[in-house]
Amino acid sequence: MARAFRWLIPHPLLTLILAVVWILLQNQVSAGMVVFGIILGVLIPWGTSIWWPGTPQGVRIGKMLTYSVIVLWDIVVANIQVAWIVLTVPNAKLRPAWIVVPLTLKQPEAITMLAGTITLTPGTVSADLSDEGHSLLVHVLHTDNPDAVRDEINERYQRRLLEIFT
Prior knowledge:
Helices cover 60% and strands 11% of the residues. The protein is built from six helices and three strands, in the order ααααβαββα.
């Protein structure tokens, strides 16, 4: 029974989230919107499930919540820092840098989370992943010390992601 159910709805939580988001986007709750939301919630995961990798094993949800709070805080702080840089530092005095961040992460989901975290944080962008997956190329808007930025990425994010994905 459960196997047949998984074939029809490969990602039940995603199905529920898609249905709820559809209803919220329509800004009205009606029987038709609920039914159509459920249909979308079933069809989208079912139609894309062949491209989904396996679920990562050993993810620590508690540490993931802590990581999420840290990332949200860093986004707020970085927004203020970037606004300050834009308002006070003349373009001629900006010191952008390309930084190579060596990766100790091995799982694709963990590397994706690190790259996404870096890109979500204003002032930094993940630009490329090496062919072997051993390093990440990051662009920084303004820094006096590229090595310190690399070390902060390793300590603040990569170390925590290693703890989450073990």
